[in-house]
Design goal:
The complex is a heterodimer. Chain A has 17 helices and no strands. Chain A is mainly α. Chain A has one domain. In chain A, helix 5 packs across helix 9. Chain B has two domains: 87 residues, Alpha-Beta Plaits (2-Layer Sandwich), CATH 3.30.70; 70 residues. Classes of the chains: A mainly alpha, B alpha+beta. At the A-B interface, helix 1, helix 6, helix 8 and helix 16 of A face helix 1, strand 2, helix 2, helix 3 and helix 5 of B.
Chain lengths: 469, 174
């Protein structure tokens, strides 16, 4: 059996690891103790999360009048945050599904954490439409279940209902995909656990995975078919989210470019969040051998491409709005009116963070720098939040009836709920980082002989080529 | 019926696959192979049949899309037609574009979940199931092949040793 791969391709596992080394490295954060830094970040996140819960309880108890919404701007931070979190939740499945279909080996170092991020982000996203209902106890009414209102069913013509189906399918399929991949890794932790309680927990989590040849054959088939199913799924989810806007008749929203542009934007922001998390995690959990500079560079390339698509979409929106000559188009979120109007700061935050600064990544030195990539990822996260804010708030702040023109200011409840979801997200991710195998170690072992440093070096020597580090 | 097997432990996937081929050529029956990660080519070397899980996924997907069509036709056309902006509410075919997203989502939902459930049932993996890999190292870095002993224990042992096994163990299996 040949493990040959051209020495020109990047080394994905550094440090001459053996199979046992991989197990040891991945199990280390689980078997070790959390350091002080972890506890500090966890405590801050937990406080933010609890504060957010308080704000949600206040909202539910009093009504959504406690938010800054008004007659004209009837959607604002809630839907901004919803779309922002769903967008972030796009990178995980893209990495694990699309890159699997394209046989990209570099996905294996990062797919587990990216999928975890996806699931945790979609959980945050899902909360916003539910609390925006005001009467959250009526949330089951969005499901097509027999009810006491005679034969009144949900409206399958509505993009809001499509969203319900899209998000719940996406969340549940991503979860199953993630968990199936986790089974062999939980089994590895289980089989080396020394504490009885730990053994019990990981036995339960691993579903009794034994790793027979037939299990692995089925495992690989299931992964491949799930990847095939998840690829159109991940593209459909943000397409459907964009339908919430695109099928309406509000200037700035009613736009056919929305579905592809939203999908590209989602991947853009999702990869930025993966960068933020993994650049930190590779240091904290000592995973430098598995999440390498090449991984970061590859992700930066994806960010460049999707950022480019987004920039082209901005330009075409701007141009078509201007070219239409309609005076109503002069206050949509991409127009001269927006750039110079009361929301000029939001407009320029979007342009600078999403389309100007990321161009620095064309420079190879920046693309391969952890610090620059980290800062860039934060900038993009901010920019993509502003994109959704601009789409929603700027477009709603003006309309066909000038007497209704208004502005939005968030109340402390809006801000608290948003901060709360960020806290909740990090609480989940930090717990994950201490208890789950954060790298898909079984998959990494399967590419060790083609992409491990000692094997790469040997292959380069044999072919008389220079070893590319 | 109880049977005796030799558990041969290997520390390298390539050696394992070569050994599997040799053992089969020698006419011995391989009971099971445990590996810590998917070893490519192992299923072919062992002569395992191809899995039909992908076919089940297709069937589940067809069930999913049929269910979606039936459900939306029943709710939106048959049972309680409603007028939303003058959209045709008397015919599924004419209102179909609005139903495409959910037809797609339910296809994926059924195909993915039912396929994974089928996989779990077939491989007998679910919560509270106990693992049956004979050695804890086989989920980390070792590879284990179980070969049935048919009155040829000594001969088979030396054969396996020659194939690169680093440890041998004879066990009675129920």
């Amino acid at each position: 059996m040949s493990h040959y791969e051209s020495p020109l391709r990047e080394t994905l596992i550094l440090g001459d690891k053996s199979y046992l080394d991989v197990s040891n490295d991945i199990a280390a954060p689980i078997e070790g103790k959390a350091n002080k830094m972890w506890w500090i970040v966890f405590s801050i996140s937990l406080v933010a999360f609890l504060w957010g819960i308080g704000a949600i309880i206040y909202t539910i108890g009093t009504g959504i009048g406690v938010w800054g919404l008004n007659n004209k701007i009837n959607w604002a931070w809630d839907i901004t945050n919803f779309v922002w979190w769903v967008g972030i939740g796009h990178a995980g499945t893209l990495i694990s599904a699309v890159l699997l279909l394209f046989r990209q080996k570099w996905r294996m170092g990062i797919n587990r954490s990216a999928e975890a991020m996806t699931i945790f982000a979609v959980v945050q996203a899902g909360m916003f439409p539910i609390i925006h209902m005001g009467r959250v106890w009526n949330a089951p009414w969005v499901l097509p279940i027999p009810n006491q209102f005679g034969s009144l069913w949900t409206n399958f013509n509505s993009p809001l209902l499509w969203d319900v189906f899209a998000i719940s399918t996406y969340l549940s399929v991503s979860l199953v995909f993630w968990w199936t991949g986790l089974l062999p890794d939980f089994a590895m932790i289980r089989d080396r656990a020394t504490k009885p309680f730990q053994k019990k927990i990981y036995s339960l989590l691993s579903f009794g995975w034994s790793g027979t040849a037939k299990d692995w054959q089925r495992f690989e088939e299931v992964s491949l078919v799930l990847a095939g199913l998840a690829t159109p799924l991940v593209l459909s989810v943000h397409t459907i989210v964009s339908f919430d806007f695109a099928t309406s008749v509000i200037p700035g929203w009613h736009s056919t470019v929305y579905p592809p542009y939203f999908v590209a934007g989602a991947v853009f922001s999702g990869f930025a969040m993966v960068q933020t998390l993994l650049i930190t995690m590779r240091k904290v959990s000592n995973l430098e051998a598995y999440i390498t500079r090449d991984h970061i560079e590859n992700m930066n390339k994806v960010i460049l491409v999707t950022g480019g698509i987004v920039a082209v979409a901005y330009l075409s929106e701007f141009f078509v709005g201007w070219y239409s000559g309609s005076s109503y188009e002069d206050f949509t979120y991409l127009s001269i009116g927006a750039a110079t109007g009361p929301y000029w700061w939001a407009f320029w935050a979007l342009i600078l963070c999403n389309s100007v600064f990321p161009q620095l990544l064309w420079i190879k030195k920046f693309r391969r720098s952890f610090l620059v990539s980290f800062i860039m990822s934060i900038i993009i996260n901010i920019g993509m939040w502003f994109e959704r804010f601009d789409i929603i708030v700027i477009n709603l702040s003006r309309g066909h009836l000038p007497s209704t023109w208004t502005q939005f200011s968030p109340t402390f409840v809006d801000i608290s709920i948003y901060m709360g979801t960020i806290g909740f997200f990090f609480v989940l991710f930090l717990l994950y980082a201490r208890t789950f195998p954060v790298v898909a170690q079984a998959e990494v072992k399967s590419i060790l002989k083609s992409s491990g440093s000692q094997f790469k070096r040997a292959m380069a020597k044999e072919e008389g080529k220079e070893y590319r580090k | 019926m109880s049977s005796k097997v030799i558990q041969a432990m290997y520390d390298d996937d390539d050696v394992l696959v070569a050994a599997v081929k040799k053992v089969r050529e020698n006419g011995n029956h391989i009971e099971e192979v445990f590996t810590p990660f998917p070893v490519h080519g192992l299923d072919k070397a062992m002569g395992l049949k191809e899995t039909r899980l992908a076919i089940t996924a297709f069937i589940y997907g067809v069930i999913g899309i049929s269910f979606a069509v039936w459900m939306m036709n029943y709710m939106m056309i048959d049972d309680w037609p409603q007028n939303f902006g003058g959209k045709p509410n008397f015919s599924y075919a004419e209102n179909m574009p609005a139903f495409v997203p959910i037809m797609f989502e339910l296809t994926v939902f059924f195909a993915a979940h039912l396929m994974v459930l089928t996989f779990y049932m077939r491989s007998k993996i679910w919560p509270f199931q106990t693992a049956h890999n004979p050695d804890p190292r086989t989920t980390s870095h070792m590879f284990l092949m179980e070969v049935i002993v048919d009155g040829n224990e000594d001969e088979l042992s030396s054969f396996l040793k020659n194939s690169g096994a680093v440890e041998l163990k004879v066990v009675e299996k129920k």
